């Protein structure tokens, strides 16, 4: 579904379709995480993105990025269009520079693999020389009256030079394996970059959604405050209230206006941040779908143990680090191979044409094939410790890569636990927020009604009004936080934009479970 626009060689189109078909099927199967909002249309978007972040493996992503070239574009945002989260993520994948940077880095690693593979082929160089040479040689005067002989030799010699490494005890193979592991690293990093971009867009999207709902909550609170002020003024007119009560109600209304203006500014800033994450020039001119009726994540579908296993198996950063260990092992083989001999073949063939002239006597002309062939053994006997230091450095890099994998594994486990706990907490907070909103709404209604009958004073009404305002904001925060934690749970387990079933289940809608 997602990915930057690309150019590719038409001769590679059939290979490209084969390499990326699995990625498209993976996108269609699982990209549409239910909490990413019921509007995802993966098949249509997949056709636009041959190197999507939905590639089922780093190897598939590496192959696809190697065959294609990303094209820098600017997100064509339409201020009159209402964007879904799916559309925004797709725009980001096409336009966010981070995806193109990761793409180019993956492509460079794939090219490095091609360079290492070329060592298995002979090096053939065409060379053509042309020149003229004059020499003077002493000569007996009995044979040469001048006592010397001067010869001029023009020459033309086109030819081919061949250099071929026949055997090197596995050094080339180790270099190729290391480059292949580096290519996998590039593919994993590309998938990771796509996931991070999608996560950032989703986060910015929900922040904007939260800001919009908070703005709406402050507007409702302002209406509530105006209702309280009207009641206080009506009671004053009936002689059952005091001027301080009216002034207190007006102060609360003014505070509500202040809160509404502040929320309005935050909402516009959230628009700018979302546009920036998409990859367009920052501007507040963007509209998103409200999603006010979208069902909430209701419960987890897998255990914490399964979530950790999913993260270890699916996170691209762990896959990249595992490939780094493999590359480090191959570099050790390369360093050890430097202790062994190399068998090489060097050959040349040319057509040599000369037509010499001498100041005394006649010389013959020639245009004949000339050649040479040398089979050599090269064995470095002493190098001042260079090979030893290279080997120790390679071994150190392997230990470092292993320690980094352990560190990343532990961090991934911690992040999964954190996301798991945060989601469960957000779920309980959402349930509490619903109960709080119901209680606060009933409390305010009862307090206002009692105040109108003179049973309660204005302080009780204002207190209930503040509780209702806080309940509205708490409900907005809890709802968006639940969505965010569900997205984060998919992100830390490596399943964002991937094909595995989501870790959460939506609440029933219209009598049917999702």
From TrEMBL:
Belongs to the outer membrane factor (OMF) (TC 1.B.17) family. InterPro entries: CyaE (IPR028351), MdtP/NodT-like (IPR010131), OMP_efflux (IPR003423). GO terms for molecular function: efflux transmembrane transporter activity. It comes from the Bacteria. This is Outer membrane efflux protein. SUPFAM superfamilies: Outer membrane efflux proteins (OEP). Gene3D superfamilies: Outer membrane efflux proteins (OEP). It comes from Granulicella tundricola (strain ATCC BAA-1859 / DSM 23138 / MP5ACTX9).
């Amino acid at each position: 579904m997602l990915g930057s626009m690309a150019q590719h060689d038409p001769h590679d189109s059939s290979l490209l379709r084969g390499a990326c078909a699995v990625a498209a099927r993976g996108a269609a199967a699982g990209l549409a995480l239910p909490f990413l909002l019921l509007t995802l249309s993966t098949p249509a978007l997949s056709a636009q993105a041959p190197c999507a972040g939905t590639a089922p493996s780093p190897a598939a992503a590496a192959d696809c990025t190697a065959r294609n070239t990303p094209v820098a574009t600017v997100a064509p945002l339409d201020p009159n269009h209402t964007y879904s989260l799916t559309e925004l993520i797709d725009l980001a994948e096409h336009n966010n520079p981070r995806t193109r940077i990761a793409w180019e880095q993956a492509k460079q690693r794939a090219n490095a693999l091609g360079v290492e593979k070329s060592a298995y082929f002979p090096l053939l160089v065409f060379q053509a020389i042309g020149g003229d040479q004059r020499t003077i040689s002493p000569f007996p005067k009995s044979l040469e009256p001048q006592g010397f002989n001067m010869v001029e030799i023009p020459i033309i010699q086109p030819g081919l030079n061949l250099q071929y490494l026949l055997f090197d005890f596995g050094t080339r193979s180790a270099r190729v394996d290391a480059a292949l592991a580096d290519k996998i690293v590039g593919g994993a990093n590309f998938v990771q970059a796509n996931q991070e971009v999608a996560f950032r867009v989703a986060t910015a999207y929900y922040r904007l959604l939260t800001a919009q709902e908070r703005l709406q909550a402050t507007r409702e609170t302002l209406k509530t405050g105006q209702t309280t002020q009207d009641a206080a003024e009506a009671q004053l007119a009936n002689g059952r209230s005091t001027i301080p009560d009216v002034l207190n109600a007006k102060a609360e209304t003014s505070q509500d206006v202040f809160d509404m203006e502040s929320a309005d500014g935050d909402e516009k800033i959230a628009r700018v941040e979302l546009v920036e994450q998409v990859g367009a020039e920052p501007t507040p001119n963007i509209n998103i779908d409200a999603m006010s009726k979208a069902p909430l994540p209701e419960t987890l579908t897998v255990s914490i143990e399964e979530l950790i296993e999913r993260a270890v198996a699916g996170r691209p950063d762990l896959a990249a680090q595992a490939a780094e260990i493999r590359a480090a092992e191959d570099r050790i083989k390369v360093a050890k191979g430097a202790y062994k001999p190399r068998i090489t073949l060097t050959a040349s063939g040319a057509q040599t044409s000369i037509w010499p002239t001498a100041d005394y006597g006649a010389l013959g002309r020639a245009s004949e094939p000339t050649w040479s062939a040398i089979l050599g053994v090269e064995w470095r006997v002493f190098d001042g410790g260079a090979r030893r230091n290279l080997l120790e450095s390679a071994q150190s890099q392997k230990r470092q890569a292993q320690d980094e994998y352990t560190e990343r594994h532990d961090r991934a486990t911690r992040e999964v636990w954190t996301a798991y706990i945060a989601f469960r907490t957000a779920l309980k907070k959402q349930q509490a927020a619903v109960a709080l909103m119901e209680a606060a709404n009933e409390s305010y209604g009862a307090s206002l009604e009692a105040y109108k009958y003179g049973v309660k004073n204005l302080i009780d009404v204002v207190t209930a009004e503040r509780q209702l305002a806080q309940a509205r904001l708490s409900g907005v925060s809890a709802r968006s936080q639940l969505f965010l934690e569900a997205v984060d749970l998919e992100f830390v387990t490596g399943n964002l934009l991937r094909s595995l079933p989501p870790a959460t289940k939506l609440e029933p809608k219209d009598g049917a479970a999702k």
